[in-house]
Amino acid sequence: MNFEMVMQELEALGKERLKKMYLSNGAREPLFGVATGDMKPIFKKTKLNQPLAEQLYATGNYDAMYFAGIIAEPNSMTEADYDRWLDSAYFYMLSDYVVAVTLSEADIAQDVADKWIACGEDLRMSAGWSCYCWLLGSRPDSEFSESKLAKMLEQVENTIHDAPERTKSSMNNFMYTVATSYLPLHDKAVAAAKAVCPVEIKSDKGKSKFLSAAENIQKTVARGKLGFKRKHVRC
């Protein structure tokens, strides 16, 4: 399938209800409103295709950018490529669920995510923390440095309440993911989650919601899901 064919199929799959939902979450025109599950049949036709992914991502169309993440070839992308993609990721559904997800399947994932976490820019930091969540939830514990993750937990505990709003959410998810998917630091992550709970997230509309990683960890423990690892990060 070529670029024009993919765009035509995406447009045909668009639903007004989903378009409104994506817009309410921060997406902007152009977009079609395609359910992510409905993209799988197109992927079967395109397979992984980095040149096509680049064409689609460059459109600025949310659905095309999301599908670009599905068909990208993570290890063919350089750090500069990931930075370029993140430059165009104008809201969290792109930064955390497209760019960070794609990066999590690359060999350079931790190195790039570390730089994003340290950069001071909200969506970049959020993408960095989110990338670690995808990594921890899919890769063997042996691929991570326990001491490094312990320091990251301490960083979250000490700074989460002063972090930008989107980064707060990703940091909160990081504590949950360490506790449930990286068993060597389960107890430390639980302690950190209890120490910072609740985490207030303020919306642009002035409303607040409160996150509790500690409660979500307890629910996962109760379901017997500790040590959970995904077989695949991307759909």
TrEMBL record:
SUPFAM superfamilies in alphabetical order: ARM repeat
Coiled-coil residues: none
A matching Pfam family: DNA_alkylation
InterPro entries named among the record's database cross-references: ARM-type_fold (IPR016024), DNA_alkylation (IPR014825)
Protein name, per record: DNA alkylation repair protein
Lineage: Bacteria, Bacillati, Bacillota, Bacilli, Bacillales
